[in-house]
Batch of 2 targets.
Target 1
Amino acid sequence: MSDSTNICLSCGLCCDGTVIGFVQLDREELPLLRDIIDIENTNGEGFFLQPCNNYCDGCTIYSKRPKQCASFECGILKSIEKQELDFDAALDIINVVKQKKFTIESELALQQIELQSQSFYFKMGEIKKLIQKNAPELALTQSQLNLIEDIKQLDNLLANKFDV
Ligand code: SF4
Ligand code: SF4
């Protein structure tokens, strides 16, 4: 198995709602996927939200996965394919992202910040809007400042290393 296949098996950040928030489906894919994916419909088009219900330590419908899943390549994967990054260095970056996500989720729970979205990706959008709206008027606590800093660090990691 190649390093690029292996890294995706060790990662899963594009299936669990960290790197992307939804997968767009082609119209012709809908009949085949309707029974195995919770598809949201918009005028005959389809998409599904992350975290994907077919992700369980890897894709459980790998041979039938949507086209966008099969073609998606983040910056880490591209760097491995170009041999600009080796497997261990890529795994280190992925683990830093997973740890940062865990820290942010723990901070949100500790601070009892309730967000509407199921997906971590969209939760980050929600919390950024909340901060933007309220921050100028609030005297932020150290925990809130830490949360803002962690979100910034995660954003930078995702933008710089994953190209999203
Ligand atoms: S985020 Fe990148 S490395 Fe991780 S599973 Fe998706 S394509 Fe693979
Ligand atoms: S269908 Fe498979 S590859 Fe696509 S998001 Fe779900 S688990 Fe990931």
Target 2
Amino acid sequence: MKLKTIINYLETIAPSSYQESYDNSGLIVGHPDTKIKGAIICLDSTEAVLDEAIKKKCNLVIAHHPIVFKGLKRLNGTNYVERVVMKAIKHDIAIYAIHTNLDNVFHNGVNAEIAKRIGLVNTKILAPKKGVKKLYTFVPATHANKVRAALFKQGAGGVSGFEHRSHASLGVGTNNGSGSNAEVRLEVSFAADKERSVVQALKKTHPSEKIPYDIISIEANNTEVGSGIIGELELPIHEKPYLEFVKKAMKVGCIRYTKLRGRKISKIAVCGGSGGFLLNKAIAQKADIFITADYKYHEFFDADSRIVIADIGHYESEQFTINLLYNIIRNKFRRFAVYSTEVNTNPIKYL
Ligand SMILES: [Zn+2]
């Protein structure tokens, strides 16, 4: 199987356009046409993971974190990033990273995987992103259903809150004095990243050569894309037993948390990795506990008795992303050799 086949599939789940501007998700080492014999999935593509790939005859490493974040000016092996890139090239191993784009999707994303393991139901994105567009077009009444069906098939009308919804109004169209015909004015919303396929569907099914259409960005959130997740527990529970449950469920060595508020809790916000930037969103949506990682001493004060911040560790919060990616690939490419890494790449140890 070609590398691009795997990448294209992964990007139907987490389009690379969903990555944050500081990120470097995507194919970091390797050529998309390379034939892939097997893949290893990991959080961090370290030298130890590359050694594992060599041993297992895999020529693809799929990592959550991109090994290269900033530009590389030289490759002489003075640090671990350079050594990994050099080793990958030397052994013909491709490295692909699926980072904040996988963080930012609701379905099959990093946070959905955590939410599932810590017992959350009725989940939704904590901080949805903007990114909804609207298409306006005029279609002869005879073709309206066909065009609308094709647009829906490409995901138009599929934005959460706008599902299979379009608006049509019937009118009379005139064309250079050559007569008039019944015409439908069709409008439909879609997630911004679907623009290309939506326009293609319109062009394929609309009978006119010169299709009258406009696309505008609208002030709505795409609730399927964004940072963090908020959800509820099926039954309210006291804070301490819940944190003990999280410690077990997420295989955490040590949870650092702020003062408990001495009450039963039911609303939980979560963000795998460094989620501190979402604290105010979690408070605004009345979360009782905010579970994330990478908190510093002074930042813990920001809880200010309004919420409990629980830092479960970066690696710990994201470790099940490996299972997530494994299952995504295993379910699609059943006979493909895919492995979860056996290397624990967490650079932090606990005493
Ligand atoms: Zn991370």
